[in-house]
Amino acid sequence: MVFVTQSIDPSALSRLRAAGLRVTVRHGEAPIGRGALLRGASRVLIPMPTDRIDGEVLDAGPVALVASHAVGTDHIDLDACRARGVAVTNTPGVLTDATADLAMALLLACTRGVLQGDALVRAGRFRGWHPLMLRGLELRGARLGIVGLGRIGRATAERARAFGMEVVHSSRSGGLPLDELLATSDVVSLHCPLTEATHHLLDAPALATMKPGAWLVNTARGPVVDEAALAEALQGHLAGAGLDVYEHEPRVHEGLVALPNVVLLPHLGSATHRARRLMAATVVDNVLAWHGGRPLPTPIL
User: Fold this and answer.
1) Can you give the pLDDT at residue 214?
2) 273 in active site
3) Residues 221, 227, 247, 253: which is the catalytic one?
4) Which of 142, 164, 183, 200 is most buried, judging by how many CB atoms fall within 10 Å of its CB?
5) Which residue of the set 26, 267, 277, 291 is catalytic?
6) How far is the C-alpha of 229 from the C-alpha of 238, rounded, in Å?
7) Is 140 a catalytic residue?
8) Which residues contact 98 (CB under 8 A, 6 or more apart)?
9) Could you give the domains of the chain?
10) Is 249 an annotated catalytic residue?
11) Which residues have a Cβ under 8 Å from the Cβ of 28 and sit 6 or more positions away?
């Protein structure tokens, strides 16, 4: 009755089984393949953000509830769900702090040459302290431009202010125009959802307006950035980038992989014990509420 496309926190699975639900978990480190997803689709589907849930999958179940193990819903065809009366839930709030922490980790790693310094020491090329070695950006007084001021954007702003940064934002609720934010920010951090309007929001023309010597951090969704254009900009006027998500994930643009001024992480935004446990718990709360005919705790549809 319940199909989980990748392993999640064991305590959450135990709760489902204790409620008498039949649970099938597909194990494996890589995202599920299309064929396996269609074969496994059940009345209740618990997908990951890497799983494309469309009409074909919904009909294969047939699926009545999509309890997504994610905050974003760009991987789910909401129109197809709406047309079929399929309920959809997500896991908002529980990964806010973890993702904001990682955004700051990427910001610091980029602006202070953490990877370059580590590589220098490991290669045996550290000859001692030097006043001109790997000079970076001092955060106090620097401007952070946040694109998308939702939960994670606000949490990142809170952390940045603690470092003494000036924080500005551009979002649907107001703030600076995007072009002004890009032109005046020392670091730009992306926290907007992926929609038709934000796909390639940072394309070649937008990247060209960024302040020379600026850094870009992306913990939102990969397709918000045109990766080919970013690779070009990083060989020109941009100082560096810190990326946790990719346009064609898990594939990363070869131009980015080859650059020493880019920090590349394997989608670790919510990868803390607490966040992943709470994500799974939220998924199960929704499944059990649906199963018991109660209101869904975190409904999308």
Assistant:
1) 98
2) no
3) 221
4) 142
5) 267
6) 11
7) no
8) 269, 270, 271, 272, 274, 275
9) 2-92+272-291 (3.40.50.720), 96-264 (3.40.50.720)
10) yes
11) 6
